Amino acid sequence: MKSSVILEIIYKKLLKAFHHRNWWPGDTADEIIIGAILTQNVSWNNVEKAIENLKQHNLCTIEQIHHSNMEKITPHIRSTFYFNEKAKKLKNFTEFLYTHYNGDVCKMFQTTTWTLRKQLLQIKGIGEETADSILLYAGEKPVFVIDAYTKRIFSRIGLTKPDWSYTEYQQFFMENLPEDIGLYNDFHAQIVNLGKSICRIKPLCDECPLNNFCEKKLIYLTK
Ligand code: SF4
Predict the structure, then answer these.
(1) Ligand 1 touching residue 151 (CB < 6 A)
(2) Relative to the CA of 209, which ligand 1 atom is closest?
(3) Is the CB of 203 under 6 A from ligand 1?
(4) If both were cysteines, with which of 81, 94, 187, 215 could 158 make a disulfide (CB 3.0 to 4.6 Å apart)?
(5) What is the DSSP string of 20-40?
(6) Does 219 score more than 70 pLDDT?
(7) Does pLDDT of 20 surpass 80?
C-alpha cells in the first residue's frame, strides 16, 4: 500500500478513536507563540501554569513581553523549568519581531512560509519544531510539525526510520499528505495524544487504534 494511503487511514483511525483535538490550546496568536516557546522540553501542564501566571500579571502578549525585562518574566514561568533560558528566548523572539516587523505578528505572517521559517530559525533558541509550531498554529501556514512522538510512533509502525532527520520526516508527511492546514493541525495533535497516552516508551499496544498497521506491535505485546 502507498504511504499516502496508509497515512490517510492512520489519520482516520486516530480521529475516530480520539475525535478532533482542537489545537493549539491558546486564545491568540501571541499566546500560541509564547506557548510554543515555553513548551520546549516540558509538558503542556507546566506551560499552562506559566501562561496563566503571565496572564494574571499582564505579560501574555508579545508587546508586554517586549516592554518587560527578564527579571519580571522569569518568576512567572518557573513551572517550565529552564526558565532563565526560556525568558531569554521569549525576549529574542520579540526583539526579532520588533526589529523586522515593527512588533506586528500579522505583518510577520504575511511573509511567505519558507522565507519566514528561515528567519525564525535564525532566532537564538528557536529550533525547527518551535518554528513550525509557530508557523502552523499561530500563522496557519501549511507546514507539518515533527516531534519526538512522531518519530517514535511512525518508526515503530515501520513507515519511517528512527534515524531520519527532522527534514526527512517533514518531507515524508508533506509529500504524502494533501496540503491542508486543518489536516496538518489535527494530525500532529493526534500524534501527540497517541504518544502521550498509548505509544509511550513502554507502549500499550493492545489499546492502540493503529495496532493493525504496526510492525513493532508483536514485539511489545509479547514482552
Ligand atoms: S501498536 Fe504499539 S508500538 Fe505500534 S503505534 Fe500502537 S502503541 Fe505504538
Answers:
(1) no
(2) 6
(3) yes
(4) 215
(5) -------SSHHHHHHHHHHTT
(6) no
(7) yes
pTM listed for this prediction: 0.95
Confidence of residue 18 (pLDDT cuts 50, 70, 90): very high
Query: Ligand 1 centroid vs 44 CA: distance in angstroms?
Result: 22
Q: Are 103 and 66 in contact (CB under 8 A)?
A: yes
Does ligand 1 come within 6 angstroms of the Cβ of 152? no
The predicted structure's pLDDT at residue 222:
52
- For the record, the C-alpha cell of 140 comes out as 496557519
How large is the angle between the packed helices 29-38 and 83-101, nearest 10 degrees?
Answer: 140
Q: Which amino acid is at 209?
A: P
What's the 177 CA to ligand 1 centre distance in angstroms?
21
Quick check: CB of 209 below 6 Å from ligand 1?
no
Q: Can you list the domains of the chain with their CATH numbers?
A: 3-22+145-221 (1.10.1670.10), 29-138 (1.10.340.30)
